[in-house]
Amino acid sequence: xxxxxxxxxxxxxxxxxxxxxxxxxxxxxxxxxxxxxxxxxxxxxxxxxxxxxxxxxxxxxxxxxxxxxxxxxxxx
Length: 76
What we know:
- This protein is an alpha+beta fold.
- A three-stranded antiparallel beta sheet has the order 1-4-5, with no helix packed on it.
- The protein has one domain (about 5-70).
- A hairpin with a 4-residue loop joins strand 4 (about 35) and strand 5 (about 40-45).
- It starts with a strand and ends in an 18-residue tail after the last helix.
- It is built from three helices and five strands.
């Protein structure tokens, strides 16, 4: 299971540039989603989060982890 967090539309509106209108594609199934694996900044839909692991997410082209020093918590 992959722990994901919802991307808040109101927070995106603060950034402007139409970001609140954009959806990223899940790194595993390409479904548009507002959910992310926070430690790697990788989009992952709720369905894939329940049926896949972080190791599987790491194997995708979208996986781009933050430097270890910047991680506040262990990757789930």
